[in-house]
Structure formats: C-alpha cells, structure tokens
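User: Teach me something about this protein's shape.
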Amino acid sequence: MEALKTYDWLGNIRELENLIHLAMIVSPGPDLMVKLSERAAEFDRESSTLQDVERNHILRLLKESAWKIDGKNGAADRLGLNPGTLRSRIKKLGIQRPQ
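Assistant: First, the predicted structure itself:
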C-alpha cells in the first residue's frame, strides 16, 4: 500500500485504475497482489526525455485501446485529447501501428 501511495502516477488516475483492475484479475487467492516494480520499470525517468515518456504513454494507451483513436474508451478519450490532436502527436512522434 505504501508503494502505491508514493509512486509517481504522473497525474493519471487511469494508470492506477488499470493497475488495480489488472491486479484484481491476476491475483491468486483473497489478497490483492500488485506488481508495481514491473510497472515502474516500463520507463526510466532518469534517462528518458519528456518526448520519450509521451511516446511510451501514447503507445501504451493505443495498445490498450486496440489502436482505437476516436470514440468512447479510445486513446484520445483516455488521454483527454481531441482525436485530431492525438493524430498530430502520433505523426510528430513517429508512432506507427505494427503490421
């Protein structure tokens, strides 16, 4: 619980919600097992630029939304962005959907 309180959530409550939801699904038995260390290792804040962090975050949300940009629960909705703004950032960051 202390690790969850002190983790830097970057102001995104959805990240916390997703982590708890996943933990509820995969935890064996009655105790909630949260693997925060794996989540924190997704990117190294010391060596990542803001652009790297933004790119990784957008990529993660695109994957979680099955590359759906528009509409309810699309990546733009989850990021709180206009879909056109998200498309512009995707292009600027050189993000491409895997084949």
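Now, about its shape. The chain has a mean pLDDT of 79. The chain has six helices and no strands. If you'd like, I can walk through any region in more detail.
User: That's plenty for now, thanks!
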